[in-house]
Amino acid sequence: MPTEIPSLHAAFDNKFKIGAAVHTKLLHAEGEFITKHYNSITAENQMKFEELQPEEGRYTFEAADEIVDFAVGKGIGVRGHTLVWHNQTPEWVFQNASGAPASRELLLSRLKEHIDTVVGRYKGQIYAWDVVNEAIEDKSDLVMRDTPWLQLLGEDYLLQAFQMAHEADAEALLFYNDYNETDPIKREKIYNLVRSLLEKGAPVHGIGMQGHWNIHGPSIEEIRLAIERYASLNVQLHITELDLSVFQFEDRRTDLTAPTAEMAELQERRFEEIFQLFREYESSITSVTFWGAADNYTWLDHFPVRGRKNWPFVFDQHLQPKESFWRIIKG
Ligand code: GLA
């Protein structure tokens, strides 16, 4: 007799939410699987600026509405992703009518309009928003990432965005979200940024650690130090985009049709250790979202090597639990 498969999120019910990044096609194909195992969902792309407002004043809410309606109907929470980012944001946002760079005034009014419309539409239905995504530079000699937001508005854009989001939905938890968040140098930059926003009175309620990690790194100790540093600001922590690639970033091999035994074993051990760590910090960590639902679909199939399969989750390509699943639910 096949073993009864327990619900993933139920194993963490009194600790933190367990989420998956989804798109509408995935909800059609795997709605039941997602509902069983996840109690939070995030739109992988369908709530990004270019998807919601491709042209000024023309909003396309069909897909986002479908995701929110699905979640509300099933009693699943929604994490909103994302309001201010340098990618997947249309060029018109940063230009005036003649194609020259928008003035500060124009850009701020567009930002406010977008946030009011989007956050306002889902008020009470989205429990947390990634208000600003990836504003910090990776290169160690620079702090802020050089983006049109920074060029046209200065550093103040973050404070403005958080205030606007809070005005649009005072109940939603507002997050600053970033990757390479365990790197000691970037970690301090993120810490300082959020600390200074809090000192200015910005309504920042949490830090999103994306968690695009792999089976070799970052070390558990580096993850622990980042969690402790961010939690010392007395904000909530969400793991927002967790996946454990079976390849190191530099590894461009394309010959595998399945993970090697060594990869699988390392991944199991890492998932176990990482979730043990999350449990240790359950008073700060309130949500853990995988950047996908199962190994049949992951953005890593196209990054950093286009068309190379990856297997970064705890469910396999047939939506069946991997050994990692059994290890993390054990607790
Ligand atoms: C970043 C973004 C996500 C997504 C991933 C890649 O982490 O925050 O929205 O685009 O890159 O899929």
Briefly characterize the structure:
The protein has 331 residues and is an alpha/beta fold. The protein has 10 helices and 9 strands.
Question: Layout of SSEs?
Answer:
Layout: E1 17-22, H1 24-37, E2 40-43, H2 49-52, H3 62-74, E3 77-84, H4 104-121, E4 128-133, H5 148-153, H6 156-168, E5 173-178, H7 184-199, E6 206-209, E7 212-214, H8 220-231, E8 236-245, H9 261-280, E9 285-290, H10 323-330
Parallel strand pairs: 1-2, 1-9, 2-3, 3-4, 4-5, 5-6, 6-8, 7-8, 8-9
Alpha-D-galactopyranose (GLA) binds next to loops.
Estimate what percentage of residues fall within beta strands. 15-25%
Number of strands: 9
Q: What's the overall average pLDDT, rounded?
A: 97
Largest beta sheet: what is the strand line-up? 1-2-3-4-5-6-8-9
User: What letter string, H or E per element, gives the SSE order?
Assistant: EHEHHEHEHHEHEEHEHEH
Based on CA atoms alone, the radius of gyration comes out at 20 Å
The ligands bound in this entry are:
alpha-D-galactopyranose
Number of helices: 10
Uncertain segments are: none
Q: Which class of secondary structure composition applies to the elements?
A: alpha/beta
Tell me the helix content: 25-40%
Shape, principal axes of CA atoms: globular
The first-to-last residue Cα distance is: 25 Å
Largest sheet: 8 strands, parallel, barrel
